[in-house]
Write a structure and sequence with these properties.
Strand content: under 5%
Shape: elongated
Number of helices: 10
Distance between the termini: 123 Å
Number of strands: 0
Order of helices and strands: HHHHHHHHHH
Length: 329
Amino acid sequence: MFGPNKKMELCILIFLVILWLVTIWFNTTIEGIAGEGNEQYNLYFTSWLCLWTTFWTLERWFVSSGMSSFEKFVRSWPNRCPMWIITFILSFSDFLFVFDAWNNWDIGTKATPYVHEMFANISQHEWVFFIQTTIVTFIGSLCWVLAEIFRRNKKDGNAPKSDVENYVEGIMLHLLAIQWVILIFFASMPGHSASLIGNIYFTTWATCFSVIATLVLWVRDWRKDIADTINEQQAEYERAKRAVLRREKKRLAKLREKNCESGEVADTVDSNQDIIEEDVAKEDLVDDDITLSITSVVGNRARTDTIDSAEDAVCFSARSLFVSAKDHD
C-alpha cells in the first residue's frame, strides 16, 4: 500500500493536498477564523504549514518513484518560463484573496469593529487598481507560459525567442514592475487593503518579488545577448584582419619576385593598391566589402603619411633658408 510506485499512497497524498487547499481557503480568507484582522496567527501559520508538508510529501513520492516532480517540471522550462509559472501561481492566488476580501469584508469583519472600520475607509479605486493589477499579471504570465508550450511542441523545441518577443517581454516586465511597486507602496500602508497580516499581505509581496526577479533575469539575458553580439563582431573583425594580413604577405612575396627578376622597385602607393585589389579579386577568404574597405584605409594612410613627410621636409628647408639669411645679415 505504501512506498514508491504504490497507487494507494499516491491517492491518499493527493486527497490530503486537496483537503488542505480547501481548508486553507475557509480558514484564512476574510470570512475565516484565521482571516485578516482576527489575529489567529497560530491557526493561520499551522494551516499553511500543513498544506506545505502534504505537498512536500507528494513531491517526495514522485521523486522516489522515479517520476518528474513539480520542481523539476518548473525548472525544465527555458526562456525565463519558470519565473513566469511562479508569477502566474502567486498573482492568481493574490487575485482570489483580494477579490474575496473586496466582496465579503463587510460580513467577515463584523466581529472586529476596528478592522471593519478600516476596510470601510478603503477607497473603491484602490480595490479596482489592486484587482486590475493582479488580473493583468496572471493573464500576461499565462500567455508567456502558453507561448513556451506551443514553442516546445514544434520540431525545434528549444528555439530561442525572437527579438520581437524579447522586446515585448521586456516592456511588459518593466510596466508590471512599476505597477507592482506603486501597488505595494499604497496597499501595504497602515489602513489600506494589504496592511494586515494575512493572505493578501503575503501574496502581494511574493508576487511583487516574483515580477522583479523575472525582470532581473530578463536584464541579465539581455546583457548576455549584447555581449555575445559584440564578441561575434570582434571575432569576425579578427578573421578579416588575419585574411588581409595573409594577402599582404602574398603581395609582398610577389613584389619581391618581380623586383628580383626585373630589377625595378615599385615606389608608388597606387601600384601597390592595384596589386592588392587584384589579390582581393582572386581570393574570397572574407567579404569583398570588408576587404576593400580595409585596403582603402591602408592606401589612404600611406598617401597621408607621404604627404605629411613631404610637408615636413618643405617646412624644414624653409626654416633653414631663413636662419641662413639671418646669419648672413
